[in-house]
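Just curious. Invent one:
>
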Amino acid sequence: MKLQCSCGAKYSFDITADMLQNPVKFVCPACGADSSDFVNELVRQEFAAAPAAEVPPAAPSAPRLKISHAAPVAAPTEAPAENVVSKFCQKHRGVLVTENCAVCQKPICPQCMELFGYFCSPLCKGKAEAQNIAVPVYAGQKFNVEARFWRNSGLIFGTIAVLVLSALGFAGWYLWYGSIPHAAFSVRFEDKSFSGDSSLVDKNQFVFLHGGTLARYDLKTKKPVWSQDLISKTELAAAIAEENRAEDQLGGGHTVAMILEKHVRKRLEVGLSLHVAGQNIWVGRDEKLTRYDWATGNPAQTVELPAERGPLVLHETELVTEGRTSITHINLGNGEIRTERIAAPGATLLAQNGAEDTGGGLPLNPGADSGKPLDPQKVAAQAQNLKLAGQLALPALLANSQNQTRLLKELNDGKTPAAHQPKATIEEISDTTMVRGPNGDLLLSVKLLEARFVTRSAMKAAPKKSALDGEVNASRTMDIANETLNEMQRNAGGDSVTEDVSRYQVSVRKAGEPASAGWTGEVIGPAQLFPLKSGAVLTAGKGVVLLDADNKILWQASLTYTVPGKLIESDDGFSHFGDGPCVERDGVLYLFDQAVLSAFDLKTGNARWRLPSVGVVGLWFDDHGAVYVNTTSASPDDIKYSKQIDVTKTTDAIVQKIDGQSGKILWTAKPGGYISYLAGQFIYAVQSYDSGVDPDEALSDTLAGLQKPDYLRIVRLNPKNGKLLWVYEDQRCPFSLHFDRNVIELGFKKEMQVLKYLAF
């Protein structure tokens, strides 16, 4: 029998029958490998394959193994012996062979193939490469498996690395750029404009009014579709000539031509108003409303507005304007006008104690501010927005204004101008007003039964020791200004407030019903009506009456303070700072007075909770039962001493998130301004300042050059915790500002801009 060791050495030996009973021991002299088990297995296979007659009897003597050793050769040329018919691999004992060597045709097993592929040894593999023998690659070869493993591992780890780097790069881009508003569209103008508006239609059509320019731009191409100049040169020249004639009649000289042209243009531009509903573009001007064609921008339709009207307010697809005797509806789709008329009103309540005028700002222009009561909030805001030089010079400027006021008073024979004399009289009232509601228009009729007014002091007593006593230095500048301003406030008669506690008979009915229908009752103080989905709220003084849909009384409640008037709405029909002071939501009536926010059960009138909060200006609601409150850091003393001036005291704007059911405060934030927009995850608080100073027209304005520059600050709040997500700032104050989720429209004096950012 012939045998080849794994080291390549070849051997031949004779076998005898006694080897079956007495196994032999075979150790390769060349490499020392013990192949005894393999040899004995070959012996057993050899005798098992032979016929029984051919098996020689076992000799009594010990088994002999005659070995013929042959040195290993580099490249065997002989074919394997024909008598080697073993099914097991010669190199890996006990492993069945599956293939033959591609060169020497020796049987090889899978373990051999893992080492050398379709070869039995490196010698055969080298011979095949030298002779260019084409041999297929064995996929299971250990080298190929490892190479494939590392190749796949490298691919996987490379992919992971690319993904991680991409994620880090995207996170950095999103953090520093993508999540921050940036200009996606901008149109700049050479001339300044101080008024205008804009509307984004179909996400990529931008319609705007900038001064006297009406235009439509495509945001994808960033090119104008059309542009119209609404104020012609002929019209501007005629208006300037008319202004000059008016100055001639007054006996004064002509204003500098450049300043006069800007003044006239500004007046004409302020008279324009933009109203957009879908592809219907309307511009209001004087007593007319003109529709401009969507495709061409040319005038397509004109409708006449009523002479007696208020501001035009957009409600879905129509404009609504309210007058004293009628409410006019203008369909923006076809221009049709519908007018609702009410009974002619009787005498109107006269203004008492400056009720129609809350007061002026810093009294630094004696000719315009002489004897005028001051608004503490306006005064404080203007003083705090002065530059340091202006704050240091403020006492001197106020003293000069006082002296000028005294001189004017002496020239006027010591009389206070009649326009500023406080009034405390009232005529008989019998008035009817129409109020729009979600379930139709309501008529509020008010009749005076007994006139009564209560006047109280709204300022602290003057200090016994003047701020001018002792050393006067820069640190006491604002104290001196406070003392001077409060003295001027007292001299102007602005140190007290007068409350109307008159008795009124009030009736509420639906429009079209007879005067005898609805609800009639007696209240103390001026009445206000706030329509709800399920009825209406009537407030008067410190009392509240809830009426159902049929104007029947459900319950009444008393408050600690009076309820403020209806919040001012913008041209798009929404309040700037939220809803209020009466809001119905999920069976709850939210109502705030001067110092308390209350939640009443709509059916029973029971107070679910009350939250002390002075200066609430509006409420916002999300879809999860939370209430967002725009309020201030003011205290009850600010109500008691509402006419006291303190330019050193800052009243911060505060935003609070409250659980609507329990009244629990979830978080409080001071973003610098009030929430102006809330939709889902998008909450924006806005703070801005407009100095109102035009360098070309500020020669006669004492504040010119002393005020801080204009600015805009938009903050996005996190609805979960109230933290700031980002802050966008601009050194300009816009005349128009609109939000639509992650899109912000801005109108500046010399630019119309659209900001966008990525949001998830």
User: Anything to note?
Assistant: The longest strand covers residues 442-450. The mean pLDDT is 82.
